[in-house]
What we know:
Layout: H1 2-6, E1 11-17, H2 23-36, E2 40-45, H3 56-62, H4 71-76, H5 84-99, E3 104-109, H6 116-128, E4 134-141, H7 148-159, E5 163-167, H8 172-183, E6 186-187, H9 189-195, H10 202-214, E7 218-221, E8 224-227, H11 235-244, H12 248-260, E9 263-264, H13 266-273, H14 277-289, E10 293-296, E11 299-302, H15 305-313, H16 317-334, H17 339-348, H18 354-367, H19 372-384, H20 393-406, H21 410-423, H22 429-442, H23 446-457, H24 464-481, H25 484-496, H26 503-520, H27 523-539, H28 546-560, H29 564-581, H30 589-600, H31 604-621, H32 628-640, H33 644-656, H34 667-680, H35 684-690, H36 692-696, H37 698-707, H38 711-721, H39 725-741, H40 746-760, H41 763-772, H42 776-791, H43 796-816, H44 819-831, H45 839-843, H46 854-864, H47 869-876, H48 880-894, H49 899-909
Parallel strand pairs: 1-4, 1-5, 2-3, 3-4, 6-8
Antiparallel strand pairs: 7-8, 9-11, 10-11
Helix pairs in contact: 6-7, 8-10, 10-11, 12-13, 12-14, 12-15, 16-17, 17-18, 18-19, 19-20, 20-21, 20-22, 21-22, 22-23, 22-24, 23-24, 24-25, 24-26, 25-26, 26-27, 26-37, 27-28, 28-29, 28-30, 29-30, 30-31, 30-32, 31-32, 31-48, 32-33, 32-34, 33-34, 34-35, 37-39, 38-39, 38-40, 39-40, 40-41, 41-42, 42-43, ...
Amino acid sequence: MLQAAKVGRGGIVLVEGRSGAGKSRLLGMAVAAAATAGFGVAQGAADELTQLIPLAPLISALEPSGRTLPADDCLALAGPADQRLLLVERLLGPLEQRVAQGPMLLALDDVQWADPMTLVALRSMTRDLASYPLVWMLTRTTGSGDCPRLNRLFDVLERDGAIRITLEALDERAVADVVTDVLGAAPEPDVLALAGIADGNPFLLVDLLEKLKGEGVFHIADGHVGMDSARLPRAQVVTQERLNELSERTRHLLQVAAVLGRSFSVKDLAEILGESTIGLLPMVEEAMSAGIVEPAGDQLTFRHDLLWQAVVGTIPTPVRQALHRDAGEMLLKRGGSAVPAAAHLIHSAGRGDESALRGLGQAAREVLRSSPQTAADLALRALELSDPADPDWVGRAATAADALTAIGRLPEAADLARGALSKAPPAQAPHLRCALAYILLLSGRPADAVAEAESLLTQHDVPDDLRGIAEWTVCWGLICLNDFGKGRLRAESVLAERERHTDAAVVGALLLLARFAVADGRVADSFAHLHEALQIANSGTVEAIQRPYTRLLLSLNWRAMRQFEESDIAIQAAEEEIKACGLTVLAAQPALFRSVVKLAAGRLDDAAAEAQAGLMIADELGTHGFIRVGVSMLALIAMRRGDIDAAVRHIERYHSIDAAPGMLFGSVWERWVMAAVVEAQGDPDRAVDILHAIYTDKEERCWALLTTPLTAAWMTRLALATANRPYAQTIVDTVEYLAQSNPDFPALATTAAHARGILYRDPGALASAAADQPEPWARASGAEDLGVLLSTTPGASAREQAIASLDQALDGYEHIGALRDAARVRARLRALGVRRRHWAQLQRPAFGWDSLTDTERAVAVLIARGMTNRQAAARMFLSPHTVSTHLRRMFSKLDIASRVELACIVAEECPDLLKDT
């Protein structure tokens, strides 16, 4: 793997096995080899007492000082923001810059102790940096408990191509080789029998042989080694004897040190023992001479995990718990972060232990925004140990509810919030009611969310920040409910008395009016409301959650008007706000919005990659509330490509997702996709049933035809195919009204012409649509509809025009990869006596430079110019995840595995594009 990295190829090595199998030794040898070869090397490790600190192993490896996340960083993360995205970005950006300069090894030991955020970061970082000469080496100890999250990570990495090495017990031949190495002679049968008690464990075997060798148990003659004693102790007994030979004071010192962790600070050890550092010196020297501990940077560490475990095993459980309690108290009294103390308190706290409960609660609040999974574990543990009558129970429940909300465990969060609300004193009730309203909104229960928030707003003396969140929740809940009557009244009343409301309420009201303006067919008014909301958000005091929503709505409007670059710009700005504000719940949204824009622009590969990126982000961060849009996108893309079975599988997955239907603008889009797939399966009547509300409700219809313009021609055609001309007439009347009401947006007139041409069999209208549609697929669809109409018109001239229109449609479909539509058009041409070769077979091979799509070539050129994935993504309005996906596909098509090889191919194929570098 290191040799491959020298020529630009990265990779992942996973090493696992039981304690003593040699994982750390193998990792250490890899680090030494990489350093000798001139690699950049970053090395870190996890341990039991740092598993509560977010990203501790990665930060210790990548931060220049080798420090873990300090207390002041944790405290700076307070507030409503979820900082997981920023923390990962803080590591990923510099790491990408670093590995762009040359090959690197990043080695992490003992990841079985890694915190949840480290596992999330490892999945994201290994995927995003797969094209760089970065070798990852991760080791973990097995056999001491199951960690589903870690098992899943290793399985996913292996499926993606990681090499997985399991260090099994040494076989008989290997044991004999080890004995020969350690004792300097070939072993006799009695020595091999002795070695057998180590059960093939390398550490125990060497430890056993070296100790007995020092005691003179072996004799060597004629190149063979035998035993002078028939004693066959257990290997673990040998380790225990090593401890028993120490003085009593040193044994006690090691027991206390073991409670502090496998690695420990001499200062902590001296403080908890009440000794001076000078007083500890003789005991430390004895422990080091016996090979129990050794220096590790500015700390001491047990020489091996098995030695640490052996020492821990000598401490009776009650004593060990008491020592953890003492250690936790010591760290709490020292001040600063409570997280290190919580690592001890979680092992020692008893029911009703107020000091320990305060420490656990403080630690949970510290890591809530950086590692909500850890915060949930700590807060739930504190609740287990709390008496329900304890006055602090409500606050602990609130923290646990916040953490559970962040990681997507919404039903549990709602139950806790309700339970706490029933016991909360008046001062705490507003926060809990506000939190519950937000949970209900995320859970897809906007009516309940609105009721909860409105209940809060009837109370007096609600703090402005909570009032703003509650007012925002009401506004967004009414948007989700499509409650035009109540929503309009609320928005107008807020704007009529702006001075009585928070900026958050004013922005929420403007977003409501923007949404309703679209439903009324007033596009310019919708833009005006959104721009005003954006101006207030940029200058006033609004809730962080509102900032990206405004830009996402703007991107939706721009896409509907087929102004794709403006839509991309709005999405990119929203993505930056999501990261800056710590809105992890919305982290998947930019990729999902980009997916729809890329599809509209005719870039199916990009659309699929962005949809997959959105789904992966949602899965990794546990924010599953809005992923139905991504699944519906994949269904539509599969249908466009002609894979109806895959489209049906995506729809089945869509129905299996326990998420809010239609949240964040997805309702119309998702219904249309489901209808399109059903129609493709040959059931147009059912497709009409799925779209019944759009056909029959004016506001639904306006919203659908403006936000998903493709539906106009398609629904007109569907209604005619099912002999439902009134439905078709309704669609045409509505889209013509929209075009007439919005003359500043010519794309609407083109959409109206397409639908009108289908209904009235008007070749002029269809020709206009085929010529003027800014959306490639819609343009090809218009040409196809024109060709179909002309093919039924008598006369040779009409036939020639029909063939020309169908050829235009075929070229358009094939250019964007809409293979199902292209196949249908080829069939229409065959019916006219014309045969066309399959474009994909004729023009685009499966492998080589010519197999790359336009987007892949553009990415290749930017990478060849030395850009990082992030720089290329920003240039092309893509997500870094999508750039990484394109690179993986290119590497496969070009049979390469490095950016260096890609740059060479680009230089050969299109050297002119690199001249300005």
